Amino acid sequence: MKIILLGAPGAGKGTQAKIISEKLEIPHISTGDIFRANIKGNTPLGMKVKEYLDNGELVPDELTVEIVKDRLGNDDCAKGYILDGFPRTIPQAEYLDKVLSEMNTSIDLALLIDVKDEDIITRMSGRRVCTNCGATYNIVFNPTKVEGICDSCNSEVIQRADDSAETVLNRLETYHKQTQPLIDYYKKTNKLVVAEGAEEVKDTTERVLKALGI
Ligand code: AMP
């Protein structure tokens, strides 16, 4: 199954993507994770994209689409995948359609995790991420068992730099301007399914699995 995850930053895409990826045994591909790993490793790509991430702006399409194209060509993508954070603009969606049609395939579903702006702001300020394995938590809705320590790998859990209050507002604005039009894009081709985000991760998961019919 080939799934796209749509939703505002902080809607819970990453958390749900991990769950779906384990359940369906398909890779979870997050362009945000790929960029962050490159920034951490000081690669040429990392140096090019750092400023965009720091400011809560989108990385230019031409840099982003190449990464995704490479990744989708890997053997582990044969059975399907879940794309988290890509596409984020109409040109990216058109590019993805083109690349997939060249591979004689297409997306099965675009799942929107729908969360109101005011809830997004509360969630993002509480979001924490593991510095080692990337597991995400929320100090209010989904806390670690021991404060500041990852449940899975015992490493330090921190707030992402781009989850700071000012950047969150920028990212939300970017989402409304550039990414929200994708909802109509996938509605037009009958690929869109919607799950309303709930406070508790497990409740959102229940809605997500139902929306995907799995
Ligand atoms: P995320 O982890 O998905 O919230 O992404 C973090 C940041 O990475 C975004 O705020 C953008 O700066 C960048 N990014 C991730 N995916 C994309 C994309 N598809 N297009 C452009 N920029 C992206």
UniProtKB/TrEMBL annotation:
PROSITE patterns: ADENYLATE_KINASE. One of its GO terms (molecular function) is AMP kinase activity. Pathway: Purine metabolism; AMP biosynthesis via salvage pathway; AMP from ADP: step 1/1. It catalyses: AMP + ATP = 2 ADP. Residues 126-163 are annotated as: LID. Residues 30-59 are annotated as: NMP. Pfam families: ADK, ADK_lid. Keywords: ATP-binding, Cytoplasm, Kinase, Metal-binding, Nucleotide biosynthesis, Nucleotide-binding, Transferase, Zinc. Zn(2+) binds at residues 130, 133, 150, 153. Consists of three domains, a large central CORE domain and two small peripheral domains, NMPbind and LID, which undergo movements during catalysis. The LID domain closes over the site of phosphoryl transfer upon ATP binding. Assembling and dissambling the active center during each catalytic cycle provides an effective means to prevent ATP hydrolysis. Some bacteria have evolved a zinc-coordinating structure that stabilizes the LID domain. This is Adenylate kinase.
